[in-house]
Specification:
Residues 86-427 form the Solute-binding protein family domain. This is ABC transporter substrate-binding protein. Its main location: periplasm. 25% of the residues lie in helices and 20% in strands. It has 546 residues and is an alpha+beta fold. It folds into two domains: 46-207 and 223-241 and 528-544, Periplasmic binding protein-like II (D-Maltodextrin-Binding Protein, domain 2), CATH 3.40.190; 293-514, Dipeptide-binding Protein, domain 3 (Roll). The longest helix is centred in the last third of the chain and has 17 residues, at 489-505.
Length: 546
């Protein structure tokens, strides 16, 4: 590994300024597309701004950062593409009963984990069980959007699993393609959390193996020569073409981009949106895939005053100029939010009328709620200023810029907006939805099936209770339960439409924009990557030319 990071070769472009080049020499970065090879083989370097704080699979698979690595080291039962279409992967086929409470999975034969264990019915059941329950006493979390209606799974034979649910669960099959639903060896699952936190000790069945890694520095993956069970939907099932992928931590975004420009790396993650047009003109591949999931916005904690008042929440909804956010912070690749879920999610409906910028209505609502403007322009009530505390999301590079613009917009109608920023680890420790100290929790989160959404909005069945409502909103509870019990999409879709309108009208969720969380800048020599339903780039199908 030392040899890998000791070689530095400047490419023909030499766009990296001298000071940045010196910095990368100090870091010991590998030459990227300067090492380009023939059509097959070759090595790539992917620069990323974080590698998270744990490698426990259940806790890290849904991370915007670690999910890249897990997507190459592990497989899934089902493949979900960028349009939300589910297709066979390690589950070659499946059936369900009429009310979607029982599913039978037929597994692909001959699949093995990197530790030699077979990926059979027993292995799938071990994974389903830990996704559902985790081992919370050890610090191993359940997978957040795995169906809470899960009852049990049984092996019919070595290649067949029957899965039972306590209630209709239409979203089960698509959720098997969610990035948290990674298959790991039963031997790894049995390990204590301390061993699971060691990436080298976790065995997956994916097209790449972990060759080396260093906490807070890099992860190097090498291809698995005997891999032969890729998802048919991507047009390739055999071993990967690239020999290795190295994920290297480089916190500074301009340095990540400059290194791709100079040829020291092949991919820069999370570039500034304002750079994308010029980078595209220079010949670099720029990708801004939207994932299936929630839009970027705030889940409002109704337990924190003044957000226990619906008029205050509605004023917040009407006081944000979302078009100005796109025009100022982003590019035309970003779309206006029309719901609290992305418009490419099956079941999403357009409620853009509830998100129209209407500062006059916002001011009227605040007047009616008793908030009076003072000489300084800030509204107050009973001696308390109208204050919104927001915590910029470190998972989204543009979050603070959006916060600052919204603070200006809301300031015009009498809000005092306080912006706080933490790093990834501190944010994860201190900022929680429905926390007594967090009035607005910024959401950047994917999911695969819209039917799983309703169950997390309250605290029923171990729900996440995003809005601090518990069971207090009878209409929300009714919609939640009817969506959960729907036996077909024809029954469910109108309920999902009603849920979206109600949540927005009540100001429980304040959308900002549709989310493009993952931004990629890529060397032109690297081609053939595929973006899945949660917008991760898979380099399993990629090739690198000279």
């Amino acid at each position: 590994m030392a040899e890998l990071f000791s070689k530095v070769t400047l490419s023909r472009r030499r766009l990296l300024v001298a000071s940045a080049a010196l910095t990368f020499t100090t870091l010991g970065m590998t030459a990227g597309h300067a090492q380009a090879s023939e059509e097959d083989g070759g090595d790539i370097v992917f620069l990323i701004d974080s590698l998270g704080d744990t490698w426990i699979p259940n806790n890290s698979a849904i991370s915007s950062f670690q999910g890249h690595i897990w997507g190459h080291v592990t497989d899934k039962l089902v493949y979900v593409d960028a349009d939300g279409k589910a297709s066979p992967w390690l589950a070659e086929s499946w059936e369900q009963n009429d009310d979607a409470t029982e599913f039978t999975l037929h597994l692909k034969s001959g699949v093995t984990f990197s530790d030699g264990a077979p990926l059979d019915a027993a292995a799938v059941i071990a994974n389903l069980d830990i996704w559902y329950a985790g081992r919370t006493s050890e610090g191993i979390n359940p997978i957040g959007l795995f169906p809470k209606t899960y009852d049990r799974a049984e092996a019919v034979d070595a290649a067949t699993v029957k899965v039972y649910f306590k209630a209709p669960t239409l979203g089960f099959i698509p959720t098997l393609g969610y990035h948290g639903s990674i298959l790991i060896s039963p031997n790894s699952i049995a390990q204590p959390a301390s061993d699971q936190a060691d990436l080298s000790k976790t065995a997956g069945s994916g097209p790449y193996l972990v060759e080396a890694w260093k906490e807070g520095d890099f992860v190097r993956l090498v291809k698995r020569a005997d891999y032969n069970w890729g998802p048919p939907a991507v047009g390739h099932t055999g071993p990967a073409f690239l020999d290795s992928i190295t994920y290297k931590l480089v916190p500074e975004p301009s340095l990540r981009v400059a290194s791709v420009q100079s040829g020291q790396a092949d991919v820069a993650y999370n570039a500034s949106p304002q750079e994308l047009e010029s980078l595209g003109e220079e010949g670099f591949t720029v990708a801004t895939p939207r994932y299936l999931g929630f839009v970027n916005g705030w889940a409002i904690n109704t337990q924190v005053a003044p957000f226990d008042d619906v008029k205050v929440r509605q004023a917040l909804q009407a006081g944000i100029n979302r078009q100005e956010i796109i025009d100022t912070v982003y590019t035309p690749d970003w779309l206006l939010a029309t719901s609290f879920i992305q418009s490419n999610v099956p079941g999403a409906t357009d409620h853009g009328d509830l998100l129209a910028y209407d500062p006059d209505r916002a001011e009227k609502l605040l007047d009616e709620a008793g908030w009076v403007k003072g000489a300084d322009g800030i509204r107050a009530k009973d001696g308390t200023q109208l204050t919104l505390i927001v915590h910029s999301n470190p998972y989204l590079a543009t979050s603070k810029s959006v916060d600052e613009l919204i603070a200006q917009q809301l300031g015009k109608i009498g809000w005092k907006v306080v912006i706080r920023a933490f790093d990834v680890v501190t944010f994860g420790e201190k900022v929680r939805y429905a926390s007594p100290t967090v009035p607005a929790y910024e959401v950047t989160r994917s999911f695969i099936d819209a039917g799983t959404v309703a169950s997390i909005l309250t605290d029923a069945n171990k729900g996440e209770n995003w809005f601090g409502l518990g069971e207090s909103d009878a209409k929300l509870n009714d919609l939640r339960d009817r969506i959960a019990s729907a036996g077909s999409v024809e029954i469910r879709d109108p309920l999902l439409d009603e849920l979206q309108a109600y949540v927005l009208d009540q100001g429980y969720f304040i959308p900002r924009t549709q989310i493009v969380q993952r931004i990629y800048v890529q060397a032109p020599e690297l081609k053939g990557e595929v973006y899945n339903g949660v917008a991760y780039a898979s380099y399993y199908t990629a090739r690198k030319s000279k």
